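Let us practice reading a record.
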Amino acid sequence: PAFQTAIRAGWSDAEHPLRDPDLEILRDDPRFMVAVAMAKASASKDGPEAFERHWVTFPTMGTYIAVLPPDYAEDEDKTYPLVVILHGNGSSELGHGRVADRVGREGVIFVVPRAPHPHSGVFAMMRKPGWTWQPEDADNQAVDEQGGVQLYVNSVLAAVKDARKRYRTQPGPFHVLGHSMGGFFANTVAALHPDQVKTYFAYAGGVPEELRDQGLLEGIGKAGVKAWIVHGANDPVVPPQASKDAKKHLEAAGVDVTFHMVDGVDHGIADRVADLIRGWLDAQVRPSTVPTSR
C-alpha cells in the first residue's frame, strides 16, 4: 500500500523498483507489478505533464464468446443447458473458453463473458490482454460505491440474456463454472440471483465477506441451488482456507455443498480438477439435455 501511495503521489520511475534489492520482497505481489505499470503510465509522454485520474462507471459494451456442442447444427429441435464460465483475474474469455474443450462440449452451451476492466499488470508486464472485475489502480471502496461488483454481475446476466436470444438454450436457471476470481463471482452471482442459478462449481475461489455480512447466502439454500466447492491443497494464490470457509458458511446457510480439496494441486486447472468439472457436468448439467418440440 505504501508503494502504491507513492505512485499515486507522483513517483514515475518504473525501472528503479525493479532493481532495488530493498523492494525484492514485494515483487511476487501482483499489486507491486500493477503499481509499476501505473508508474510507466505516469511517465508516458503521450499525456499532459501533470494530471489526476479518477474512476467513474461509464455504460459500455462488453463481449462474450459462445462454445456450442458438436451436434448443435444437426438437430434443430434439441435444446441445451447453459453453463457460464467466469474466468480468473487477469485471464480472458478466450483463455478460459478453452476449458470447454478440456471437459467436453457435448450436451452443453458454454458462454464465457469477459470481465469489464483491463488488468493493467497483465497488459503492461506480460504484453497480452487480461481482464478483471474492477480498475486495478482504483480505490476498492470507491469502486464498490460505484457498483463494481454489480457491474460485473450485470454483465454476466446480460451475456446470458443475449445468448438465450441467439441459441437454443433451455429455459429456467443456468449453471456457473468459476475459477479464482470467477470462483468468488460464482458464489456472488448465486447469492445475488439465486432464482436464476441452478448449480455452480467454484474452483479456487471463496465467499466474499459482504455476502456473509448481508445474510445473502441463505437465499442460495432456500432456492435449492447446489454448490460444488473445489480447491487445490497447494494453491499459493488463493489460500485453500478460503474454500474451507466457503463450505462452512454455505452449509450453515442451508446450501447443498459438494466439497473437494485436491492434494498436490496448485492454482491452475490440473487434470484432476478438469475431471471434477467433468463429473459436475455429467451429474448436474448434462442429464437435462433433452429434445423438445419447438
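A brief commentary: Strands lie at 64-67, 82-86, 109-113, 117-118, 131-132, 174-179, 197-203, 226-232, 256-262.
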